[in-house]
Amino acid sequence: MKFFRSALIVSLALLFAGMSSAQTIEVTIAQGLNAAIDFANQGNADTLMLVDGGDVGFYELEPPTIESPMTIMAKPGLASPPVIRAAASTDQNDFIRVKEDLTVIGVVIDGQAGDGTYAKFKYMFKINNPPADNPPNLEPKLTVLDCHLKNVYKTG
Question: In this predicted model, what pLDDT tens digit does every residue of 12-68 receive, in sequence order?
């Protein structure tokens, strides 16, 4: 009886550990990167795998805030890397605000907006200035690997 009780406790602990651990989700252009970031910010995923390459189109992104540790990466084996562009409505200094650890792998982040205009933002990544921004992580880590960052400037 004691063995079965212990086995049950261990089984339940493993089950709940598996349920609480984050996951990798595949994100298409149609699903939208903003929706995926919102989902990950709630602790539901830790890796957003972009499955549509630049030959298919681009991920239009309203300026997000990273509030949960996450990785945004290209799906291995794509013919061309995924392209992330600012939404046409973007007009601010900071494009991606980083309040928690962020790793970006194998993507193109292009300052040209979806409507073809430039000069939509001045800083591609903004790591918050504690304590004014009250980030949950006072020293978030930003890692950018095998990426192409281009057309980043804001006039005036």
Answer: 444 444 444 569 999 999 999 999 999 999 999 999 999 999 999 999 998 899 999
Residue 65 lies in a domain: yes
The Cα 63–Cα 87 span in angstroms is: 8
The span from the CA of 79 to the CA of 140, in Å, is 32
Do 86 and 121 touch, CB atoms closer than 8 A? yes
Would residue 13 count as lying in a domain? no
Q: Structurally, how many domains does the chain consist of?
A: 1
